[in-house]
Amino acid sequence: MNDRRRTAWRWWRVDAVALGVCAVMTLAVYVAGVRPLMLTQQAALIEASKHVAQMEVAARTQRSRLTEMREQLDASRIHLEPTTQLNHRLAQLNELATEAGLTVEQLQPKAMVTSADVQVIPIDMHGSGGYPASMTFLRLVHARFADMGVAGFDLTATGDGRFRMSLTWYTAPTADDALAAGS
């Protein structure tokens, strides 16, 4: 029986040493590898959380600005006239040019460019009148027609001050034009 106890004690000591070695190795792996990795991951998670919070604040700010800009856009919407008013617009431009002191020799609409949202009609205008009258005309166009732009302007320094302007008129598309542009 004594032998049996000794053998059991010897195995228990071997088991205890193996258990101790396993515990020490587990602790070493945890301290040397797992814990630093966990701390690194926690730091990265904290940093990512801060970044997410900053992005949420930025997104809220941008949504607020977008809402504000949409409200401003809705408040300042420019009413676009239909293309059926082309002759009327050409007459208005001729009257403005005369009012500014320009002599119009040619006022010619070009081919219309159509999209789903807007139609653009380029208008070429040629004549004489000099720089001051041309600038007055452009100021009048800007003040009276929010739906027009200037694509080009040339002025020749001759005695009568020859000018050439390329204007653009933005018009509302008709339902047929919008369908054609979408296809």
Strand-helix topology:
Blueprint: H1 2-75, H2 86-100, E1 103-109, E2 113-114, E3 119-128, H3 130-144, E4 148-155, E5 162-171, H4 175-182
Antiparallel strand pairs: 1-3, 2-3, 3-5, 4-5
Helix pairs in contact: 2-3
Question: What this model shows, in words?
Answer:
Helix content is 61%, strand content 20%. It contains four helices and five strands. Strands 1, 2, 3, 4 and 5 form a five-stranded antiparallel sheet that branches. A hairpin with a 6-residue loop joins strand 4 and strand 5. The protein starts with a helix and ends with a helix. The longest helix is centred in the first third of the chain and has 74 residues, at 2-75. Helix 2 crosses helix 3 (130-144). By secondary structure, the protein is an alpha+beta fold. It is rod-shaped, with a radius of gyration of 40 Å. The mean pLDDT is 83. It folds into two domains: 1-77; 83-182, Alpha-Beta Plaits (2-Layer Sandwich), CATH 3.30.70.60.
Quick structural overview:
This protein is of the alpha+beta class and 183 residues long. It has 4 helices and 5 strands.
Which value, in Å, is the CA radius of gyration?
40 Å
Distance between the termini: 100 Å
Strand proportion: 15-25%
Let me know the largest β-sheet: 5 strands, antiparallel
Task: Give keywords.
183 residues, single chain, 20% strand, five-stranded antiparallel β-sheet, Alpha-Beta Plaits, rod-shaped
